[in-house]
Amino acid sequence: MALKALKLRVCGGFFSGSLDFAIPFVMDSSALYSDNYRTNPEKVWEEMRNDFPVFYDDISNMWWVSRYEDVKNIFVDYQTFSSSTYELTTGQVVGPTLISRDDYGHVVRRKIVAPDFVGNRLRSYEQLIEDCVSNLINSFESEEEISLVREFSSQLPVDVISAILGMEGDGQLFRQWVTSMIMGLNDSPELRQKGLDASEAFCSHIAPLLNEVDDLDRTDHIAKIARAEIEGERLTNEEITAFCGLLFIAGGETTDKAIANMWWNVLNHPEVLEAVLDDDSLWENAFSETMRRTPAVISEERFTTRSVELHGVEIPEGAKVRACLAAAHLDPTVFQDPLSFDIYRSDMNLGKENRSGVSKDSERSGHFGFGLGKHFCIGYELARNEAIVGSKRILERLGKPRLQENQQGQIIQARNSFFACKELIVSFQK
Ligand code: HEM
Fold this sequence. Notes:
Strand order of the largest sheet: 3-4-12-9-5
Largest sheet: 5 strands, mixed
Strand content: 15-25%
CATH class: Mainly Alpha
Number of helices: 18
Mean pLDDT: 91
Helix content: 40-55%
Shape: globular
Bound molecules: protoporphyrin IX containing FE
Radius of gyration: 23 Å
CATH architecture: Orthogonal Bundle
Low-confidence stretches: 1-16
């Protein structure tokens, strides 16, 4: 409970002057689930940062942490803040994966795919990304206005991952399953069952690809994951399909929502739109600033492996902690004028992220939109590439975009996991 100072002016009777009171100021957990919060969460995040840097949410039974340095520490200190929480979410729907491990097993599994999604190896997928973008644009190029989310951003990431895994053209099929699998991460038994059914259909679909993986002509990722050995042992089929499921879950809706948020931010700032039309390399800056100002993923959960004292509050061992990275990104002690969308800001790294997510420039801070440290996103460069290439090509082929009136902006979704636009209707002028 925080104390708030109150000055009261009292006149009359035996006393005339001012009194200082310290009154208890209580924040109710329902503030984090109200309709107002869903569309304007920034005020509540500010209250948490200022008065409740460690806040116990008795609705979800978890501890929220919202200041930049504290969130950073949670990501970095994986020995105290364990990712085993994922055993209760992705683990239940797709099976065991690296994301819920903090041990050596995490490191070796990560090495199987992570290097392919960055640097020169990612460059070998550039044409594949261009082709996926081009196919989608072909399907709506002649329309006067498009549903950017339905027709583009929700499709591209799943098309790209399907093609990388060796299932080009199966994007449509995967989209339904991935959506149900993500809904299945929720606690509701009904949604969980739908997620499990989708996961089963997904596994049956990819099962044939688990055969003949030693055929060295196969360059797809499923064969690659299946051929990888950890201390002389290959992954089980269950682990391979779970790995593939994780790539879809982690890389599908996240990238979709990041693209939608970036377009919302750019189209709502005419000077930024003019800047990217004039110099399309500035999409890179717009992407980074979007990841800070309106990150698609707003928080990550951890379990405490021991009791921890933070700002005078004791978080018990075995408690769930929610590192609210979106609130941390608005910390005014780190980013100047944090609520503004500024693609030239001098206090943040703009452009490509570093592999670990740790900023090497002491003058500029990094965003946590892709996490930080051990579990830093594997697909950070792939997602950025899809968003930038997709946006550039749409402008080149369709012309100057304009957002239709009365569009809804970002909204909190999936019980404080995402903050994103659900749809954007955009028209173009050649
Ligand atoms: C803009 C799009 C994306 C966002 C916002 C995003 C966000 C994140 C975040 C915040 C984490 C850290 C999770 C944690 O610490 O608990 C993460 C991890 C991960 N991401 Fe992404 N991601 C995106 C795209 C992708 C893509 C395209 C892929 C793969 C194709 C991917 C695969 C993964 C994997 C496998 C992990 C787990 C890494 C580990 O545990 O070592 N992500 N992502």
